[in-house]
Amino acid sequence: MKANVHVTLKRGVLDPQGKAIGHALQSLGFDGVDDVRQGKFIELELAETDQDAARAAVEAMCQKLLANTVIEDYRIDFVG
Amino acid sequence: MKANVHVTLKRGVLDPQGKAIGHALQSLGFDGVDDVRQGKFIELELAETDQDAARAAVEAMCQKLLANTVIEDYRIDFVG
Amino acid sequence: MKAAVIVFPGSNCDRDVSVALEHATGHKPAMVWHRDSDLPQVDLIVVPGGFSYGDYLRSGAMAAQSPVMREVVARAKSGTRVLGICNGFQILTEAKLLPGALMRNAGLKFLCRTVDLRVENADSAFTAGYAKDQLIRLPVAHHDGNYFADADTLARIEDNGMVAFRYVTPDGAIDASGNPNGSANAVAGLFNEGRTVLGLMPHPERAAEPLHGNTDGKPLLDGLVEALS
Amino acid sequence: MTTTHQSKEPAVTPELAAEYGLSLEEYQRMLDITQRTPSFTELGIFSVMWSEHCSYKSSRVWLKKLPTKAPHVICGPGENAGVIDIGDGQAAIFKMESHNHPSFIEPYQGAATGVGGILRDVFTMGARPIANMNALRFGSPDHPKTRHLISGVVAGIGGYGNCVGVPTVGGETNFHPSYNGNILVNAMTVGLADTDKIFYSAAAGVGNPVVYVGSKTGRDGIHGATMASTEFTEDSEEKRPTVQVGDPFTEKLLIEACLELMATDAIVAIQDMGAAGLTSSSVEMADKGGLGIELDLDAVPQRETGMSPYEIMLSESQERMLIVLKPGREDLAKAIFDKWELDFAVIGRVTDTGRLVLKMHGETYCDLEVGPLVDRAPVYERPWEPTPPQADIPASEAPLPGPATEVLHRLIGGPDLASRRWIWEQYDSQVGADTVAASGGDAAVVRVHGTNKALAITTDCTPRYCFADPVRGGAQAVAEAWRNLTAVGATPLAITDNMNFGNPQKPRIMGQFAGCIQGMAEACTTLEFPVVSGNVSLYNETNGEGILPTPAIGGVGILPDASLAASVAFKAAGEAILLIGD
Ligand SMILES: Nc1ncnc2c1ncn2[C@@H]1O[C@H](COP(=O)(O)OP(=O)(O)O)[C@@H](O)[C@H]1O
């Protein structure tokens, strides 16, 4: 079973990387990009086959390691 | 219009970050994580309202800046 | 003063800080490997700089989950002084011993240079060797030193005198030109509320002997020895 | 003896061999050695061992002319890095290496893996790396690719060097349009070892275990020629050679684990897996020991599934080492690599057959005599023509192109003199807390840990001089390195070099190479400044246009007292300024 985790910065947290990408896009001539935010996309290949059990496990992984909940939110999706 | 871009390492390309995350999860006691890959998730807020035009623009941004196409693949989705 | 230095896979300033501590105390600190959960009884625990776990995922994130860090947190709670330098600062925030987070430098680049600092609070074992408002210079070398905390947290930090060092211009002013990484409130070093834990991005151990061309880091170590002996 | 696998691999023909870079004569020479049609895996091994990169076939005859001996030289060219005696039972171990082509394709990873490779060359020999340097050449600053390339290369050097905890203390950066399509990324590492704890690569002890440590093997950087092979394209996405990605965290663990193992008595021989990976490391270890090696490729730690023997042998995955252990030391060694969470596998044995035997899935994919792979590698005395002398222009005939202050402004603002601070500030130059002087002076100065001594390190070359007059340009590069070392108060000891040139099959380019070597040899001899290691990078050409001849010199010297290092800054107002020399 495969879990996709999106880790994104909380609203209100400044995103220096997103800001820099926005600047760079502008200087490359891409206008009309109002805002850019950069987050992480983590793909986990799990042995677990039960979705509830898997969700609980991935939730715990996010809380403990994958996200820093002081500044980040996360979202878990299952595929396949 | 909002575009979500996923940038991931091509298959076969070493992912040191994913490898280290996998190790760390294991030593935290999360068994059954067979593989971890880390990529980027970029959210773009666009002024453009026409989806075809937006796709062409984001495609060009990926090629030029957002992805390193020598080692990375990208996927573009539109939301809202 | 007895000291211990925690060593993670990827720590690389562990030797540097242990040499500086040895000079300051006259004896070698204990080096504690991250998998050890028995930490010797010491007066000072140092979490050194480097790239623990390659700084992959987030700087300090994986080290903060190491077994030894549970023990460090417990000791810190019971009053043992804990000093985190650079990556050590990042680890202490990830371990929630200090509030806030260290994000990518505003300029996005790794930055190695000597910066000007102002000592904001000399009332701690860590800063007793300095005078309040003293201007000093210390080297920094980091990619993720951009201190962030939400507005409430920043207010609490300021109200409680938790800022140890701030980035300033050579004449002591706080402005963007003196702030090398975009840190909120120009925070370069931060205490916990009890001022028993200090995290700072600059490297005092790299400015601790005449050959370094700068000895402004030495009072930090000497002050600790004085306070904790 | 023949191999037993043929059905699964493409049949080897002269045409296939040509696709893998072997000329018809080289193909014949291979057949003379094997006395049968080689297997596909064997062809791969010949093709990399006889490549310019591994065999030095165009440069070898010339490199012999460089002086390599001095009383303080412990080990000259031929091992992973050069070793010099710095007194008190200590040695400095250093080398410079290029990663030009990969850095042009992928600047960040190309430069990063270049740093990783040169670090391994140095710690393989038992040294703790104490300083990194880099010599960089880029195209014209206004060429559309230059910005992207330089920012990627600098970030890659920093990204790797900073993470492994080795200070990057200096380097040089030049711009010239001849590098537009061919940037140069030369990286140098200096390490420190005890003279009685230096490790070499010659295998010894029939029956001794051959051990693989580090990262797993993937399909990274496999011989580019694979792509041209029709047999492999049906599955191209899967099998396409991929860019090597560096993992500096693993390298840091590998440094610590190897040094920990080296402190025991377990190691007989050790060699990093650099270019041509497992092939060149196993062949060189066997050849130097005059022995054979038998490997069980099933035991090689693999990152990807379904890898063929060819792919395993030619993979250039990073952060890997090959070690011959003393018998019975496997458990001790394994415990160390387990502690550092690195892969460890016994993959073979040293044999007395003098042959390289490779087995997988119970079949034999390679059975070659090792000696001839190395001894009978082609050596070319390529035709060369001397560079025509240029007329001397008397200074009086070169008038100032404007008022002096304006010209000075232009000079200082020009790309070759402008400040490089933005580059070196991306490198941690202080980690180790032994840096006495980093970028910004004539040479970097790094204290020998725990002593008052220091090493001085510099990289130098002025390619436009080498282009105008290779002999004087080559001599000048050596002399400049020597001067930069003496300028900080050091006694110059030895150099490493990185010979970056165009296509050696052109007599004009070969003439530049020959001229630079001649000049370097003269200067090295006169200054008693021997060459102890080096690297050659040829075929730096795009659309038939070669780069400026660029023999980068890395010099190392010693200061008995680090506190006496001189620096460029004026120390006080009112002091006299002296000009010496002519
Ligand atoms: N790529 C680099 N990495 C580190 N330091 C560099 C680099 N390029 C230049 N420098 C430093 O910048 C200074 C000036 O460089 P350059 O003009 O190339 O050297 P030189 O003094 O030999 O003419 C030197 O101190 C050198 O160490």
TrEMBL record, chains A, B:
<dbReference type="GO" id="GO:0005737">
    <property type="term" value="C:cytoplasm"/>
</dbReference>
<dbReference type="GO" id="GO:0004642">
    <property type="term" value="F:phosphoribosylformylglycinamidine synthase activity"/>
</dbReference>
<dbReference type="GO" id="GO:0006189">
    <property type="term" value="P:'de novo' IMP biosynthetic process"/>
</dbReference>
<comment type="subunit">
    <text>Part of the FGAM synthase complex composed of 1 PurL, 1 PurQ and 2 PurS subunits.</text>
</comment>
<keyword id="KW-0963">Cytoplasm</keyword>
<keyword id="KW-0436">Ligase</keyword>
<dbReference type="InterPro" id="IPR003850">
    <property type="entry name" value="PurS"/>
</dbReference>
<dbReference type="InterPro" id="IPR036604">
    <property type="entry name" value="PurS-like_sf"/>
</dbReference>
<comment type="pathway">
    <text>Purine metabolism; IMP biosynthesis via de novo pathway; 5-amino-1-(5-phospho-D-ribosyl)imidazole from N(2)-formyl-N(1)-(5-phospho-D-ribosyl)glycinamide: step 1/2.</text>
</comment>
<comment type="function">
    <text>Part of the phosphoribosylformylglycinamidine synthase complex involved in the purines biosynthetic pathway. Catalyzes the ATP-dependent conversion of formylglycinamide ribonucleotide (FGAR) and glutamine to yield formylglycinamidine ribonucleotide (FGAM) and glutamate. The FGAM synthase complex is composed of three subunits. PurQ produces an ammonia molecule by converting glutamine to glutamate. PurL transfers the ammonia molecule to FGAR to form FGAM in an ATP-dependent manner.</text>
</comment>
<dbReference type="Pfam" id="PF02700">
    <property type="entry name" value="PurS"/>
</dbReference>
<dbReference type="GO" id="GO:0005524">
    <property type="term" value="F:ATP binding"/>
</dbReference>
<keyword id="KW-0658">Purine biosynthesis</keyword>
<keyword id="KW-0067">ATP-binding</keyword>
<protein>
    <recommendedName>
        <fullName>Phosphoribosylformylglycinamidine synthase subunit PurS</fullName>
        <ecNumber>6.3.5.3</ecNumber>
    </recommendedName>
</protein>
<comment type="similarity">
    <text>Belongs to the PurS family.</text>
</comment>
<keyword id="KW-0547">Nucleotide-binding</keyword>
TrEMBL record, chain C:
<dbReference type="InterPro" id="IPR029062">
    <property type="entry name" value="Class_I_gatase-like"/>
</dbReference>
<feature type="active site" description="Nucleophile">
    <location>
        <position position="86"/>
    </location>
</feature>
<dbReference type="GO" id="GO:0004359">
    <property type="term" value="F:glutaminase activity"/>
</dbReference>
<dbReference type="GO" id="GO:0005737">
    <property type="term" value="C:cytoplasm"/>
</dbReference>
<dbReference type="GO" id="GO:0005524">
    <property type="term" value="F:ATP binding"/>
</dbReference>
<dbReference type="GO" id="GO:0006189">
    <property type="term" value="P:'de novo' IMP biosynthetic process"/>
</dbReference>
<keyword id="KW-0315">Glutamine amidotransferase</keyword>
<keyword id="KW-0963">Cytoplasm</keyword>
<dbReference type="Pfam" id="PF13507">
    <property type="entry name" value="GATase_5"/>
</dbReference>
<feature type="active site">
    <location>
        <position position="203"/>
    </location>
</feature>
<dbReference type="InterPro" id="IPR010075">
    <property type="entry name" value="PRibForGlyAmidine_synth_PurQ"/>
</dbReference>
<keyword id="KW-0658">Purine biosynthesis</keyword>
<keyword id="KW-0378">Hydrolase</keyword>
<comment type="subunit">
    <text>Part of the FGAM synthase complex composed of 1 PurL, 1 PurQ and 2 PurS subunits.</text>
</comment>
<comment type="pathway">
    <text>Purine metabolism; IMP biosynthesis via de novo pathway; 5-amino-1-(5-phospho-D-ribosyl)imidazole from N(2)-formyl-N(1)-(5-phospho-D-ribosyl)glycinamide: step 1/2.</text>
</comment>
<protein>
    <recommendedName>
        <fullName>Phosphoribosylformylglycinamidine synthase subunit PurQ</fullName>
        <ecNumber>6.3.5.3</ecNumber>
        <ecNumber>3.5.1.2</ecNumber>
    </recommendedName>
</protein>
<keyword id="KW-0067">ATP-binding</keyword>
<comment type="function">
    <text>Part of the phosphoribosylformylglycinamidine synthase complex involved in the purines biosynthetic pathway. Catalyzes the ATP-dependent conversion of formylglycinamide ribonucleotide (FGAR) and glutamine to yield formylglycinamidine ribonucleotide (FGAM) and glutamate. The FGAM synthase complex is composed of three subunits. PurQ produces an ammonia molecule by converting glutamine to glutamate. PurL transfers the ammonia molecule to FGAR to form FGAM in an ATP-dependent manner.</text>
</comment>
<keyword id="KW-0547">Nucleotide-binding</keyword>
<dbReference type="GO" id="GO:0004642">
    <property type="term" value="F:phosphoribosylformylglycinamidine synthase activity"/>
</dbReference>
<keyword id="KW-0436">Ligase</keyword>
<feature type="active site">
    <location>
        <position position="205"/>
    </location>
</feature>
